[in-house]
Amino acid sequence: MFNEISPRYDFLNHFLSFGIDHIWRRKVVREIRRHFGNSLHSLNILDVATGTGDLALAVAGLQPAHIDGIDISTAMMEVARRKVQEKGLAQLISFREGEAERIPFSEDTYDVVMVAFGVRNFEDLKGGLNEMRRVMKPGGYMLILEFSHPDRFPMKPLYACYSKRMIPLLGKLISRHRQAYTYLPQTVAAFPDGEAFLFILRELGLQNLRQIRLSGGIATLYCAEK
Ligand SMILES: C[S@@+](CC[C@H](N)C(=O)[O-])C[C@H]1O[C@@H](n2cnc3c(N)ncnc32)[C@H](O)[C@@H]1O
Fold first, then answer.
1. Short-list 116, 94, 142, 100, CA closest to 25
2. CA of 51 to the centre of ligand 1 (A)
3. pLDDT one-digit tens code per residue, 47-78
4. Which structural domains are found in the chain, ordered by start?
5. Which residue has the CA at smallest separation from atom 4 of ligand 1?
6. CB of 2 sitting under 6 A from ligand 1
């Protein structure tokens, strides 16, 4: 599905979110800066389900040692590679085909392992999160940005209407893919958020868990340490 929508993915992302997705990714960048302070230049970072590379590119601004991105969709990563080449960042950011459930890197490799709007798509959520934990160095930082469920007025009814009606309609018209943008609100509704998601991270042995609700709960940034 992501291979098929890759040419229009970036446009639709920014259009359907009114550009707020950039603000959410910048929150991940700020959180890494806050956590690591002066040692940013030595960081090795892994972006899981990197897609078209927007999170990897956002984090490149921190000038870390290196960023790897993995994804199962070659077409999404083709777009990512083009963007990275255009920005002259090919030395800093590398992409490789790989599944979250079988990350093609050794254990204890990364200071930061992050994923934006990807965990919801994992075939095996706990398996993928456990793999992310495995490749993190002890003391490493995990950041997971994902859609969640707004639970207060007025965001709750507004978002319910927008995600169930407008996103499928506009997504179908622009992406020309019948299911992709119907699948999005359905998977968000079925996905654990808030305390339920933190419970899964805790079960995997991760520590110092935090959740930062964004835009009235439309998205949440989960942070954890190994
Ligand atoms: C909604 S996109 C998010 C892309 C990007 N992180 C962003 O913020 O725009 C989800 C991505 O997850 C990838 N994906 C889905 N399941 C995956 C898995 N099991 N392992 C790795 N990538 C996966 C898809 O190919 C797609 O590129």
1. 116
2. 5
3. 999 999 999 999 999 999 999 999 999 999 99
4. 2-148+189-225 (3.40.50.150)
5. 51
6. yes
CA distance 198 to 119: 13
| Beta-ladder partners of 46 | 68, 113
CB-based contact 139:226 (threshold 8 Å): yes
Distance 132 CA to ligand 1 centre (A): 14
Question: If you average pLDDT over residues 194-213, what whole number do you get?
Answer: 98
Q: Which atom of ligand 1 is nearest to the CA of 1?
A: 25
> 0.85 exceeded by the pTM?
yes
Is residue 123 within 6 Å of ligand 1 at its C-beta?
yes
User: How do residues 107-159 score in pLDDT, each as one tens digit?
Assistant: 999 999 999 999 999 999 999 999 999 999 999 999 999 999 998 899 999 98
